[in-house]
Amino acid sequence: MSSRILAALPEMSVAMAKIGALLLENPAAPLELSITELAQRAGTSPATVTRFCRLIGYAGYPPLRVGAAADLGRSSAETWQSDIGRAFDPADTAVDVLNALVSSHTSALQTTAARLDHNAAEQAARAIAASAHVDIYGIGGSAVLANELQARLYRIGLNAHVWSEVHEGLTSAAIQGPGTVAIGISNTGRTGETLEMLALARSTGALAVAITGNPDSPLASVADHHLTAFAVDAYLQPDDLSAKHAQLLAIDLLYLLVAQQDFARTTAMLAASAAAVAPHRRSLRGGTRSRERGNPVA
Fold first, then answer.
1. Fold adopted by 98-270
2. What ranges do the domains of the chain cover?
3. Domain spanning 2-74 has what CATH number?
4. What confidence category does residue 73 fall into, taking pLDDT thresholds of 50, 70 and 90?
5. Over the Cα atoms of the chain, what is R_g?
6. What is the pTM of this model?
């Protein structure tokens, strides 16, 4: 990579030259920093970093990182520790892996419980219970959690909608107003689309709630209330499921606090929905044997 940078220096703008100088001084920087962090370190923008990558022959930042790794000659063990995590070893037994998983997930849940702002959760729950409209934003893996929260709120009688596509989400955010609530879910708190949707909803008058793993993240900074769902990023970055479980804990708490606000409505709605799906649940007492005896299925 260094030879590519040196060869392309005469064609670089001042901003790109700063990136080049940074990488020549610290060739491991792409392995340690995200594209945004590298841009900040060089005093430029992520877009300029992308243009820099293309100028020196890479399609983008991820291929540049691969090139940096190859140049540094990382061993397979180093690759495992960087990409999979130090909580596991390739030679671990299934029992070792299970124990490490339990430790990681337990730590995430305990830390979330200790750090989550109870007052913020209660205030958000009261606003959601009284809201005329709730928008929930989540992209990628966070969209799964957004759908889970929406389904729960909708089932107890709240007008909740989930948006995982930014154009549709921005359209809904633009027509929010006082008396509504917008919820943004992002583990890193740096997902641009989620940030944009939540910020717009808040600007139109909605109460903004953020659920992230980082209280200092951009998403948390635009929210009226922030719930921290903490995970240690011990393995399989960025797909660490302990982070999802921490977010589920925060979502579960928020849902139950909302349900408490109007318990009569909650129980009535849950009973109605249970009755609606009851005919589609098979009885454990009936089945094939009852039919073979000529008896009706219970």
1. Rossmann fold (3.40.50)
2. 2-74, 98-270
3. 1.10.10.10
4. low
5. 25
6. 0.66
